[in-house]
Structure to design on (98 residues):
């Protein structure tokens, strides 16, 4: 699947499930649920086989889509994003003062 195909699903999950904004694993689990895939009944072997045959959405693609959406839409960013970027500014100021 292309990233454009993920956008609707990822943005819907990010809007409705704030805890998915900070963790790609949580986001991916919710995405699988939207595609009707129940992780509680899926074996690891079947899951990995489905990943290799592209039966399931790409984990990396979902994460990339999340990052692109959060870059464009500030309201979809998680609490860790703000903390990380505050620290980034501190480090930038320290480096500039050297």
């Amino acid at each position: 699947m292309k990233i454009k195909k993920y956008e609707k699903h990822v943005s819907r999950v990010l809007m409705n499930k704030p805890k998915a904004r900070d963790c790609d694993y949580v986001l991916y689990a919710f995405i699988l649920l939207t595609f009707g895939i129940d992780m509680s009944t899926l074996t690891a072997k079947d899951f990995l086989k489905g990943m290799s045959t592209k039966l399931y959405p790409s984990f990396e693609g979902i994460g990339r889509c999340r990052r692109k959406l959060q870059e464009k839409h500030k309201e979809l960013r998680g609490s860790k994003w703000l903390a990380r970027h505050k620290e980034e500014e501190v480090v930038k100021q320290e480096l500039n003062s050297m």
Notes: Helices lie at 3-16, 24-34, 44-52, 59-72, 79-96. The CA atoms of residues 22 and 81 lie 7 Å apart. The chain has one domain: 3-96.
